[in-house]
Design goal:
The chain is of the alpha/beta class. The chain contains four helices and five strands, in the order βαβαβαββα.
């Protein structure tokens, strides 16, 4: 699996219809910590496979989406399960730390 792109236009369709939990990374091109997360998210996407889908939402291209979820700092990762936001993680974390937060939220 790879990290997909989610927008204001397809957000509800993707998150609401997903059988697996969805992790959305709110980011921006100019954000250094956001760029540091890219390989971490790619690795996690491969490791979780069909058990978790991961998407990136550019806050500059999707301001209404960022506003809807009160994204004030980036990177901001929001974990959705059954269409509901269940966990918000702000900042760039090491892969093992991020995986632990995801696993704890889903258990």
């Amino acid at each position: 699996m790879s990290v997909g792109v989610i927008t204001q236009d397809n957000f509800d369709e993707i998150v609401d219809n997903s059988k697996a939990p969805v992790l959305v990374d709110f980011w921006a091109e100019w954000c250094g910590p956001c760029k540091m997360l890219i390989p971490v998210l790619e690795e996690l996407s491969s490791e979780y496979g069909d058990d978790l889908t991961i998407y990136k939402a550019n806050v500059e291209e999707n301001p209404k989406l960022a506003q809807k979820f009160k994204v004030r700092s980036i990177p901001c990762l929001i974990l959705f399960k059954d269409g509901e936001a269940i966990k918000t993680i702000v900042g760039a974390l090491a892969k093992d730390d991020l995986k632990a937060k995801i696993d704890n939220s889903l258990s």
